[in-house]
Amino acid sequence: MISGNMPKSLFQNWQFAIEVNGFDVALFRKGTEPKTEFEEVAFAPAGSMFDQKVAGRVKFDDITLEKGVMQDGSDTAAVEWIRHQVDVNEVTGWLPDEYMRDIDIVRYDRSGREMRRWTLHGAWVKVLEYDDLEGGSSENTIEKLTLCYQYWTEGD
């Protein structure tokens, strides 16, 4: 008799792409997927022995992306994105919509077929950082972007 616990095919962290306007997709090596969290709202109705709990406001956590840095200095997409944000903060005529971007995180199977896509709407750079300087290291320099975004949708 066969039990109901047959092997399942699961997503593998093998192939993915980060699609951001102005960035070379091939340079991304690591990223986090969207995380959604709801506030917990508790209240105690009259005569109740325990609190009632319901879902409150939704929160979308920041994501972090890591990508290689080109030796020739030709990859300036992150710095340019930050410059747009600075221009808005200096009130030089730009609006936040000018620097907010939609970003796609795409998962592929081993044959290269798209399996899942998340679109992060209204994303902007919260943190830009680089690896520590280390003499004698032969590792590639990595640029890390922490992105804040308004919300995400799946399958767009």
Q: Compute the CA-based radius of gyration.
A: 21 Å
* Domain module tally: 1
Would you tell me the structural class of the helices and strands?
Answer: mainly beta
Strand-residue fraction?
Answer: 35-45%
User: What does the largest sheet look like?
Assistant: 7 strands, antiparallel
Mean pLDDT: 86
CATH homology superfamily: Hcp1-like
The fold-level CATH name is: Pnp Oxidase, Chain A
Low-confidence stretches: none
- Helix percentage range: under 10%
Give the total of beta strands: 9
Order of helices and strands: EEEEEHEEEE
Coarse shape: extended
The end-to-end span amounts to 43 Å
**CATH architecture label:** Roll
- Count of alpha and pi helical runs: 1
Q: What is the CATH C-level name?
A: Mainly Beta
How would you describe what is shown here?
- With 156 residues, the chain is mainly beta.
- The protein has a single domain (15-42, 62-154), classed as Pnp Oxidase, Chain A, CATH 2.30.110.20.
- 8% of the residues lie in helices and 44% in strands.
- The protein starts with 14 loop residues before the first strand and ends with a strand.
- The model has no long low-confidence stretch (mean pLDDT 86).
